[in-house]
Every structure is written in structure tokens, then in C-alpha cells.
Amino acid sequence: MTDTAPGPGRPVALVTGASSGIGRSFALALADRGHDLVLVARDVARLEALAKEVADAYGATAEVLPADLTEPGELARVADRLCRGRPEVTLLVNNAGFGTYGRFADLPVDAEEREIRLNVVALVRLTHAALTRMVPAGRGGIINVGSIAGRQPTPGNATYGATKAFVSSFTQAVREELRGSGVRCMVLEPGFTRTEFQDRAGIDPGTVPGFLWQEPEQVVQAALRAFDRGRAVCVPGPLNAATAALASVAPGAVTRRVAAALLRRRPAGEPGA
Ligand SMILES: NC(=O)c1ccc[n+]([C@@H]2O[C@H](COP(=O)([O-])OP(=O)(O)OC[C@H]3O[C@@H](n4cnc5c(N)ncnc54)[C@H](OP(=O)(O)O)[C@@H]3O)[C@@H](O)[C@H]2O)c1
């Protein structure tokens, strides 16, 4: 579905998961920087409202491309937009993602598989689609959204942490392969960020101390600054940076246990939560 086709001459960014949270903040910040947008998520009404908001506030035009990225046919449509659509996308933000919480053995495995399809498979396919055009053109950029949860095994959300470890490893490897190509690639690894993420996962955000939280706008401003500087990895905020650095050097036996203790939360609404 197209609201208005992006006009010629302005750079175009495609943002997945643009209907809320970090993705919505990326869309607003990029429009403010002079980008036109392609907005991807499932909630058409929210994407259309955002398209109007960026037009009114920043004079940006936005194409609304609704898609459930866990569905192969819908994912292929978004990949096709990156490979062949006009005007060409010069910045891809692979942001759509979700988490599941609980003991892996107790969780419905279909949701675990959907999580892998969104957080990993869609990100890989869209990165590849974008590169088929960016590499020959010798320009472009990709920001993949991981998490500091990817820095160590995360008992209590085992699949989520593993998907984000994949995002980090994959993005940094591709970045090295792209050296000298004119195409930049960065992984963004936020910590706790006030979005709909915890609600969607059925987690009571009140179980996380206030000082650990960042607003999505802070995360996105840090990400865009880091991307401008050509960084490979952006961990927004000094507290998250210290946590991530510690997780990277501490022995696995320690990080596994600390993560298990920190992530031992009760779903929202459960007695005693
Ligand atoms: N919030 C945190 O604490 C935190 C920390 C570290 C990393 N992250 C990462 O940040 C990214 C953005 O999350 P957020 O915190 O902004 O959460 P959010 O507010 O829940 O936003 C998630 C976005 O993903 C979209 N989405 C979900 N399932 C989708 C699907 N099947 N197909 C297409 N789009 C889908 C949602 O839109 P629709 O529902 O309209 O499809 C929404 O726009 C995720 O990758 C998450 O893992 C978040």
C-alpha cells in the first residue's frame, strides 16, 4: 500500500517495526534528518498515522508497506521493494523484533520459531536484499537492531538472547566483508528501553529498576551518532555499555548465572509479580 511515493533527490530509509517503540523513533529521527521513508510493520493504521505525522512535521514522504515479516510471502514483498523498488532505499533499519519469556521447555514452540523467523530470518533476507543493490551502487547503510541480551546466554528468554547474539555476530561479520565497498553496517544493542516490547512479552516492566531504562529517542539518537561516526557496534548509554563490556570479559559460568538471576521475572499479572 502506498500513501505517497517518496520524491526524487532525498535519501530513502526503510524501517521495519516502524509502528511503535524504537522503530517509530527511528522513522521520526530520520525524517527530521531529511530522509523519505518506507514504513514496514503489521499495523497499517499506525503506519498511516506515522506517515501523516512525518509529512506534517518534516515534509517527508512515506510509503506504507504493511507486512508480517514472519510470513515468507510478505517478507518477499519487502525484500523485493529493497531489490527493485523505486526510489532506491539507501538506509535499511532492521528493527522489528519480539521476545518470549519463560522456561524454554514450557513455552509453545511455534512462538519460539516465529521469534527466530522475525529476529533472524527476516533480518538476514532483508540485509541480503538491500546489499544486492547497495554493493553494486557502492553506497548505502544498514543498521541491525540486536540487544545487550545477545552478549551472554539468557536463561528465562533463551531463544531471544540467542537471536540477538546471531544479529551481533552476523552484522559484524558482514560489516568486515563490506570493508571498502562504500556500504556501512552497524549493530545497535540497546538495553531496557521504554516501548511496547515488555508488554508484548507479558513482562511487568515494574520489575526492572527505573535507572536501567532508556527512552527510545535516546537509543535512536545514540545509534545515529554512532552510525555517522562509522562505528561497528552501538551500545547506547554508559550503564548499558558497562554491562555489555563486563558480559564480554566475564567467564561464561558467571554471566549465565547472573543473567538467570536478573531475568527471573514473573509475567505481568501473575500473583506476586
Ligand atoms: N525495548 C527493549 O527493552 C529492547 C531492548 C533491546 C533490544 N530491543 C529490540 O528493539 C527492537 C524494537 O523493539 P521495541 O522495543 O521498539 O518494541 P515494540 O514497541 O514492541 O516494537 C516492535 C515493532 O516490531 C513490529 N513487529 C512485531 N512483529 C512483527 C512482524 N511479525 N512483522 C513485522 N513487524 C513486526 C511491531 O509492529 P506491528 O505489531 O505493527 O507489526 C513494532 O513496530 C526489537 O528488535 C527488540 O528486540 C528492545
Task: Give the helices and strands, then pairings.
Elements: E1 12-16, H1 21-32, E2 36-41, H2 44-58, E3 62-66, H3 72-84, E4 91-94, H4 109-137, E5 140-145, H5 158-177, E6 183-188, H6 197-201, H7 216-228, E7 233-234, H8 238-249, H9 252-262
Parallel strand pairs: 1-2, 1-4, 2-3, 4-5, 5-6, 6-7
Bound molecules: NADP nicotinamide-adenine-dinucleotide phosphate.
Summary, kept brief:
This protein is of the alpha/beta class and 273 residues long.
| Strand order across the largest sheet | 3-2-1-4-5-6-7
CATH class equals Alpha Beta
Largest sheet: 7 strands, parallel
Q: Kindly, what is the distance between the CA atoms of the first and last residues, rounded to a whole number of angstroms?
A: 42 Å
Number of strands: 7
Order of helices and strands: EHEHEHEHEHEHHEHH
Structural classification: alpha/beta
The helical percent reads 40-55%
Named at the architecture level, the CATH assignment is 3-Layer(aba) Sandwich
Q: So, the CATH homologous superfamily?
A: NAD(P)-binding Rossmann-like Domain
Give the strand content. Answer: 5-15%
Bound molecules: NADP nicotinamide-adenine-dinucleotide phosphate
Number of self-contained structural domains: 1
CATH topology: Rossmann fold
Number of helices: 9
Rounded to an integer, what's the Rg over CA atoms?
18 Å
Q: What would your notes on this structure say?
A:
The protein is α/β, with parallel strands linked by helices and 273 residues long. The protein has one domain (12-262): Rossmann fold, CATH 3.40.50. It is built from nine helices and seven strands, in the order E-H-E-H-E-H-E-H-E-H-E-H-H-E-H-H. It has helices at residues 21-32, 44-58, 72-84, 109-137, 158-177, 197-201, 216-228, 238-249, 252-262; strands spanning 12-16, 36-41, 62-66, 91-94, 140-145, 183-188, 233-234. Strands 3-2-1-4-5-6-7 form a seven-stranded parallel sheet, with helices on both faces. Helix 1 (21-32) packs parallel to helix 2, helix 1 packs across helix 7 and helix 3 packs parallel to helix 4 (109-137). The structure holds NADP nicotinamide-adenine-dinucleotide phosphate. The site of NADP nicotinamide-adenine-dinucleotide phosphate (NAP) has 29 residues, from helix 1 and helix 6. NADP nicotinamide-adenine-dinucleotide phosphate is lined by residues 16-23, 41-43, 67-70, 95-98, 118, 145, 147, 190, 192-193, 195-197, 200.
